[in-house]
Amino acid sequence: MRIGNASGFYGDRFSAFEEMLTGGPLDVLTGDYLAELTMLILGRDRLKSPDLGYAKTFLRQLEEGLGLARERGVRIVANAGGLNPAGLADAVRALAAKAGIPVSVAHVEGDDLMPFAEGALTANAYLGGAGITACLRAGADVVVTGRVTDAALVSGAAAWWFDWAPDDHDRLAGAVVAGHVLECGTQATGGNYSFFTAHDVRRPGFPLAEIAEDGSSVITKHPGTGGVVSVGTVTAQLLYETQGPRYLGPDVTARLDTARLAQTDADRVSISGVVGEAPPATLKVGVTRIGGWRNEVVFVLTGLDIEEKAALVRTQLAGALAQVATADWTLARTDHEDAETEETASALLRLVVRDPSPDRVGRALTSEAIELALASYPGFHVTSPPGPAQPYGVFTSSTVPATAVPHVAVLPNGTRQPVPAVSPAPPASEARGSGDAAPAGSGAEPTDPGRGGAGESPAGQPTRRVPLGTLIGARSGDKGGDANIGVWVERDDAWEWLHATLTAEALQTLLPETAGLRVTRHTLPNLRALNFTIAGILGDGVASAHRFDPQAKALGEWLRARHTDIPAHLLPTHLPLTPEGTAP
């Protein structure tokens, strides 16, 4: 079967839906619209009206796409239902009726566990793909869901197409891995790719998977579309937002350490050998809350005496901040000595305040900062005018027994078909599909076998001090308050060095912001990859804006930019040598 993806997040390329339907043959088109931050956004929408709570963009895309899908015999599966899949299903039916398009619509529900706990805005279990399978077996042309795992959009459709049984673990696991590659759209076709300079990625095409009956797949894209599908781009996406080798999901546990990749042709990468195991007995539950109120001011400090200017502002505002719950200052030294432009001569001093009360961090506070304009450091100005306080969210996760969640497929004729929980595996605590900040399990190395020093090489072997990214690729992301960084290399000799050298301790040396946090390393030899989980670096998650890079999207690129000593024979031969024998 040929299954494509047309959305990696709520706000992705609007035209992708039509492009995927017209660019080549498909059997199923999926769309992933949900993320931790999206659930908070949809939760606030639902507070305004109980009729809201779904991704409105999807409905607009169907205005053109529904007729195209019907003409081409393409089924549509999307998690755009968010907090209101029944409401979205009704809206799709109304749209189809108005356009005179005869389609059958079904939806999956039961993930919404509200009321869940005091103060919760949303609480949703991550369901598997079995409800999607049931809807497609009943003849649905369009299936919309609430919170299912991202990969379930693909595995649920594949189980329908091939009529897999719930205990076809290897086949399901292969489809889950393919689904994980597809779920973030163009990240599989050259988007956000470490080695982007080697390819034309100005407008990557969206990915599709050709899935075989045994669960193996080929990742590719429609002919003539931009970007690239390579072992590297697929590896990067396989490492994205995962933790241990066992990728726990509601339908199956996929063993990422068994996946084998091969470049079979231009823009064609095969995935084979994936081993599946029974799923755990629990489902992840993602919970969002309104954590309080926040505000910020960014002061521009230009020229000389940057540190002294920053100290003056902090002193002048100390009294105003005394009653605020938290006030975080960050000085970003973006300034350059003897700069040729004013902007490159400037540093940024960022003040972020948070409090349970909007009054203590509202316009009165930011206005007090602006009142310093003529009474503070020379060259005083800020990046934006004072603004009101804004609510911020907090994301947490927990688990519930799978048998306690009423997973239901609502078929096109309105029949409500319960979806039984899958027989579980023994308890495990590794990474869950589509996001579990669970502690590392048996896939984590209790102690790193490497020497523990970034850049160390066998005695006498010539090295060059260069950015780590000269050799390695990386991709990073968020899971609640945790972050992961996946790193990989393309050759066996480079893998031997990477595995021996880049330990958890070495990573903490390279990234000082991780000091004091629990860092766990996992190895994936088939991918020549390491995956690091950094616990707590993102505080309460993306919606809390705890950090400069709240989703850890660039954490891997920071790691690649750090300089270390790498054996010279592993590096590209074009790197110049200094008189001392090292690369500049």
Automatic annotation (TrEMBL):
UniProt cross-references to Pfam families, sorted A to Z: AtuA, AtuA_ferredoxin
Residue ranges of domain Acyclic terpene utilisation N-terminal in the record: 1-409
Transmembrane segments annotated in the record for this chain: none
Disordered: annotated span: 413-477
InterPro entries in the cross-refs: AtuA-like_ferredoxin_dom, AtuA_N
Start-end of Low complexity biased regions: 428-444
Domain AtuA-like ferredoxin-fold: 467-561
Name of this protein: DUF1446 domain-containing protein
